[in-house]
Amino acid sequence: MIQWIRSKSFGCPALALAAICGPLALAGATGAHLGLEDMMNADYSKAAAVHAVMEKYVKAGLPGVAVAVHTEKEGWWADAVGFCRTEDKTPMRPDHLHYLQSVTKTFMATAILQLMEKGKLSLDDPISRHLPAWAAGSLHNAADITVRMLLNHTSGVPEYMSRPGYVSRVILHPLELMSERENLRYIENESPIFSPGGRYAYTNTNYLLLALIADAITGDHTAYMKKNIFDPLGMTQTWYGRSFADLDRLPLVDSYWDVLQTGEPANITAMQKANVASMKGDDGIVCTPLDAVKFMHGLMEGKLITDASMELMRTWVKNDKGTPVYGLGLSYFQAGGIEAWGHGGGGIGAGCLLLYIPANKTSLFIGTNLGLLIETPMTKKADPIKFEILAAVLQ
Question: What is the pTM of this model?
Fold first, then answer.
């Protein structure tokens, strides 16, 4: 849905929907779920420092926090602190599934770049060449927008999630699922927010359109992603584009939202599942923290796309302040002299951050089951956790 962190400063935008999840260390998880038990480093040197940060924030009010890491020197490690479900104090474990939210965009971009490498499309193709007629017809200028512009958010396509009709639908019918066609209908009569290629503006609509393009080319882009991204990396605990009923059967964390700003978040799990089940391309993946790290590690190790495609992915566009912010499905982050690539994600009751720090070849996932849709005293307390965990991992 929306990114948790702003690229330049790792800051939390006012409308960011962040998340992070969590008391049991790796020993409490099952090998069948993790799939990496034999590779796990029980002596990870930063384990105590990271765990202490996680405990600090759970004591401050987060329902739960989960972290997974891969470093070149120390291998794989994961931990979880807090509760998967606060009502009955069910501990959060490292093998619980989390919502990747907008991190799905990095997966979607990877699939599009793979299709480019196979000769199925060009990044400079007009999207009208690949979109279904009904989808192209929902835009004022589909012939002027390229695939690349969707990937790096320079298309000028309006945001469907910010339209009053969409917001009303979610609030008044929170458990009703919406299709891609319904979601696009909310911007049918909307003018572009700027001319294609004119500047950068992050919108979920761009990646919804990319999903429709991938469907048109592959027949079923969810099946394509499983075969060409999840399976090659051994991501056995990852699901995408699943129905509400499917999500209900998976070992997902429960979702919480401090909607009344009381410091006692309400359980809005059903609403979270319905919302995620309604989105593809811009959202829709659930997985374990370790599977998320498997993806980032595999992507950066060249197991999914070529070096040339990775260079394209890391061709950063700048925001209105002249700061590099986004490539093709990757955000650019910098703080305290640390450069990182990745993506943040957040939903009504969950969110995460998936990063790669090139200086020491470290992949890091942080997730929580607290929604940060509206800024509250609790979300302000939660925001620094990403800095503190990153500092603990890099110390």
Answer: 0.91
